[in-house]
Design goal:
This protein is α/β, with parallel strands linked by helices and 287 residues long. It has eleven helices and twelve strands.
Length: 287
């Protein structure tokens, strides 16, 4: 099958970049072709606002099936940038044959703004060949945190306060922490900086827990990748993270409880084959 993706993958970055990176790798392994021109595709996956309206209309008129993937958080009062972005999403969605929401949270949040006739909820996934627990017996000594952005919704102030309180624990921070307004040069912190995706599993396998205070995440790829690496997640409830984690972790208020029961949560992570990306990709191709 010939598939068009409206975003091109990069080595570093989360969000929709993780999806297109995974989908491109999966397509090559399974003898599908990623095409550069939308009108050459059998199916086109349009990522949020990324795509030219006229190109989408022309491709649709030639029989290309338009799949519109939504991973956004909509608000009533937004910056000019986000308002323009979401207006374009609404315009693109008029031409979608089917809309994919990344989680039930995204569907419910977007429902006042988008009214697609046909839609599915498909959680993200990750490649278990890359993201897996690795050999048994590895020492997991760190509480981890990974972030590709430093906006207010990531709640780095919650992370900073947790580190300050938990002086007996060592925190491994991967991402853009040093660009934030918070000083993470603390005695119980290892700052790793941003890493290419292929280097993340090695770091995740050193973690005994992922601390994830981000709020209103549509469907966190980092959380999925951590779970597949056998890392339970302590998360902020508002958003789509709870839908992903299920019994593989607890909310932020249960941090101390989790520390006492990490082995049990880790065992539950090992059963999450539903997060394998091949299962996610098969769902897209069936649309």
């Amino acid at each position: 099958m010939k598939i068009y993706l409206s975003r091109k993958p990069a080595k570093i970055g989360g969000g929709s970049n993780s999806f297109v990176w995974n989908f491109t790798r999966w397509a090559k392994k399974n003898s599908h072709k990623i095409v550069r021109k939308i009108e050459s595709a059998d199916k086109a996956i349009i990522i949020a606002n990324i795509g030219e309206i006229e190109d989408i209309k022309r491709a649709k008129s030639k029989g290309v099936r338009i799949i519109h993937r939504i991973d956004e958080y909509f608000e009533q009062h937004e910056s000019d940038y986000r308002r323009e972005k979401h207006e374009k999403i609404k315009e693109i969605n008029q031409y979608a044959d089917i809309t994919v929401f990344q989680s039930e949270f995204v569907l419910n949040n977007a429902s006042p703004f988008l009214k697609p006739k046909n839609y599915k909820i498909i959680l993200n996934g990750a490649d278990p060949e890359l993201f897996n627990p690795g050999p048994s017996g590895q020492e997991r000594e760190y509480i981890g945190h990974i972030t590709w952005s430093i906006g207010e919704s990531k709640h780095l102030e919650i992370l900073h306060e947790r580190i300050r309180k938990s002086t007996s624990e060592t925190f491994l921070l991967v991402g853009r922490h040093q660009e934030s307004d918070f000083n993470f040069n603390m005695e119980n912190v290892i700052l790793s900086g941003a890493k290419a995706r292929k280097k993340l599993p090695r770091l995740m396998r050193k973690m005994k827990m992922l601390y994830h205070p981000a709020e209103n995440d549509p469907c966190s790829n980092t959380v999925i990748e951590a779970i597949l690496c056998g890392v339970p997640v302590c998360y902020n409830i508002p958003g789509g993270t709870e839908e992903i984690v299920r019994d593989c972790g607890e909310s932020l208020s249960h941090f101390d409880q989790m520390l006492l029961n990490l082995e049990n949560y880790g065992e539950k992570c090992l059963k999450r084959t539903d997060l394998y990306f091949d299962k996610v990709a098969d769902k897209y191709l069936a649309l």
